[in-house]
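Per reviewer request, we include the raw input and output of the structure prediction for the construct analysed in the revised manuscript.
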Amino acid sequence: MCGIAGFVAARDQEVGAWFPEAVEAARHRGPDAAAVWLPGDRNRTPTHLFADRGRAARAALGFVRLSILDLSPTGDEPMVIPDRAALVFNGEIYNYVELRKQLEARGCSFESTGDAEVLLKGWLEWGIGLLPRLNGMWAFAIYDVQKQGLLLARDRFGEKPLFTMPWAGGVAFASEVKQLAAFPGAALELDPAAAARFLATGRP
């Protein structure tokens, strides 16, 4: 179990202490590490350092980690390939070893031993074609720096939580609703039709 949070907005937003606080609201999901990333960062930034330096950005990613596969810092997230893309990921890709071998055959190299880097480099290699190759349970976000766009993906059965809301002309997302409540101006309202559908079918 890990926790993710982030946003992509229509224009620059002031990203101050409120964002690490939103990330930290799910710290029980990831007691081992916490960090954030904004476009332009070469690497992830520890949350406690980021809280003191507000910045303007159109996107941000945050992560709290429960270390399971790659226990070393190479498995930390947000996982960043500078000037290309960044990833936050909650879950497990069961066939990541096979996908890694396919990517290595195409010339990709890896620093970590876990599945997160396979996701990130799989996106750069296959684009949206990555998704049908995945076997597992997941909720992840990839911000593509070159495309200036965000991919949000959830496993086919919705086993891993991923909550979204419209925010700042774009979208905010998180593993838990209380994280979204920390976003400035968040308007969390119940959708009666969606609630009825969930109670009737178990589907969002």
